[in-house]
Prior knowledge:
single chain, three-stranded antiparallel sheet, CATH 1.10.230.10, Citrate Synthase, domain 1, 49% helix
Amino acid sequence: MPETLSITDNRTGKTYEVPIAEGAIRATDLKKITTGGEDQGLCTYDPAFMNTAACKSKITFIDGDKGILMYRGYPIEQLAEHSTYLETAYLILFGELPTKGQLDGWTHSIVMHTMVHENIKKFMEGFTYDAHPMGVFISTVGAMSTFYPDGKQIFNADSRQKQIHRLIAKTPTIAAYAYRHSIGRPYVYPDNDLSFTGNFLNMLFKMTEVKYQPNKALERALDVLFILHADHEQNCSTSAMRAIGSSNVDPFSALAGAAAALYGPLHGGANEAVLRMLKDIGSVDHIPAFIKKVKAGDGRLMGFGHRVYKSYDPRAKIIKRTAYEVFGVTGKNPLLDIALELERIALEDEYFVSRKLYPNVDFYSGLIYQAMGFPVEMFAVLFAIARTVGWVAQWEEMLLDPETKIARPKQLYEGATARDYVPMGGRSAY
Ligand code: CMC
């Protein structure tokens, strides 16, 4: 069977043969389909990239119909069960699970980079006390490019590695400082004896005790949540990371842009929106009226639906289980009953069933974070810490791909045709 596509252009009667590789045709192959003259050839129109692959990647595989998610071929369920965030980060970055020696070296290297320059602390003090921590996070990550100008050497492999280590190690420190700043508590320096997530909890919650001891169950739950959020192929923020990085800017600037994309309520801001939604619903009795409103097009059921998953998000299943483990320590989040009933009703409702809308990763994660003591404003920041490894892995893959060029989509111009400048006196209000 030939791996080609025959296209007949009914405007000209000409037939073209276009190669198919990996289930795709190259959009640039369509350029040869022209009507002649000034016609620059056919292109595809795909707002929101609904059916366009913009890169090749070896990092993350998703089958949205079957609810499968794998990092480098390893199912997310197995990683959540057996791995740690730092081990998974190594896997995502380097393609293989580390040996004991490799993991020790990698962990040591991350630990060595957890501190931030004292001026970063001072810089963060300039934000008002009620500044949203995600805004603080985005700005501070962007500012890191001024502290580490060697980050501009993006085609130097050693420099790239150094910036990647810095980003993975320092984002929790920045996130914790953003949180402490918002509640007026002094910043806590990293404790490098603790695990990645244990140290993060230390920087967030340490008070006057000499040594902070994280609760093991909560430390593990946060590690699992970080594993689940570590990468998710070409989502909005990762696409932003790749697009910004394709201009050859330093990774700190590119990552600030990716984090900004994550901030939106349709992406990483969704778990904050879920909590606000559950609070607004207020009680199980109010759910039918809320669902009716959503179905009438007045708002969305936040934490439901996904561009890729048309079945239960595999991450949501693991998170739901983790929620019960966390509630065993913290006590049940009172919003859980509303969430469970909302899910039950939505999964039986024709509107949601016919549109294949299922709970996504954000539906239950906020309940866990809240039970652990995080304010809702921190939720997207937690997502950003975990996704940092995905962003930098995809950034490096993009840089090393010989097919990479600066990202620059086409447009279909529908504006005015050429016309002469009109002096002020000749204009009328429109
Ligand atoms: N509640 C109610 N209706 C919905 C929802 C929802 N959460 N999501 C989609 N729909 C409807 C939508 O109105 C449309 O209906 P119709 O065909 O009648 O116009 C249909 O389902 C398809 O929706 P879409 O907007 O074309 O789908 P999309 O692939 O562009 O959007 C999404 C995906 C995640 C942005 C969307 O499902 C959504 O807004 N969900 C709520 C926000 C959310 O939970 N985001 C987190 C996503 S997972 C983590 C992450 O990416 O960070």
